[in-house]
Amino acid sequence: MSMSSLTYDYLNNQKQVLATDGSRICGVNWTIVDNPAMMCAQTARESAVDRTAALSPTEKVGEAIRLSLPHLPTEARQIVASLLEPRSLAIIGASVVAWAGSHLIGVGEFVDVILLAVGVVALGFSVFEGAREMLDFAETAVRARSERELDIAGKHFARAVTILGISTVQAVLLRGGTRAVRSRTARCVAAACLAINRWNRSARRRQRATNCA
């Protein structure tokens, strides 16, 4: 095969002509490339990392959900695909970013989010496993730096759908997710303030007792 017709199959199996004049392949001088296929694969991987890092958190969430589609039960795929519409994705992105960014929410707290959104307790103990998968999805998607990490996030999302059911996941994503996190955070802050106030009052009483003695 002549250099002028050299091609490589990469990135979604699309044929890409990498060199037409025999001088440069993947932007690298041919004379210093021992393995052009490896060089091109490395360039493709670096490009994918750069693209992922440049995405907004909401875009990362949307891409992770899209990558979850092949792993979902057949009956759930159409519903999940509808979540990728811009208006729905904006709501979902806000909720997921709030979960990933909150240091005060764990599996137990996220179970509260699920029960608040769905309003039932019929899920049983599986709700804890599903909550863990949803949190792993949120944290992995928002912090992803590569397509591989987005794919991992998508698999967490697919497992959450399988465990909790698409109706539950849809309700959590679209109803009250951000509000529940903020409410939980506000309750934690209020409880901390109350504890501090009680400690201060107790300290003042001890100080007065010491002065009187």
What spatial form do the alpha-carbon principal axes imply? elongated
Number of helices: 9
The amount of beta strand, in percent, is 5-15%
Class computed from helices, strands and strand pairing: mainly alpha
The percent range for helix content is 55-70%
What is the number of domains?
Answer: 2
The rounded distance between the terminal residues' Cα atoms is 100 Å
- Give the strand line-up of the largest sheet: 1-2
Question: The biggest beta sheet, please?
Answer: 2 strands, antiparallel
Round the mean pLDDT to the nearest integer and report it: 71
Helix and strand succession? EEEEHHHHHHHHH
Instruction: Round the Cα radius of gyration to an integer and report it.
Output: 25 Å
Per DSSP E runs of 2 or more residues, the count of β-strands stands at 4
What low-confidence regions span 5 or more consecutive residues with pLDDT below 50?
Answer: 1-25, 27-33, 177-193
How would you characterize this protein structure?
- The structure is a single chain.
- This protein is mainly alpha-helical.
- The chain has helices at residues 36-54, 57-68, 74-82, 86-101, 107-118, 126-143, 147-164, 166-174, 177-212; strands at 7-10, 14-17, 24-25, 28-29.
- It folds into two domains: 3-53, no CATH class; 57-194, no CATH class.
- 70% of the residues lie in helices and 6% in strands.
- Helix 2 (57-68) crosses helix 4 (86-101).
- It is elongated.
- Residues 1-25, 27-33 and 177-193 have low confidence and may be disordered.
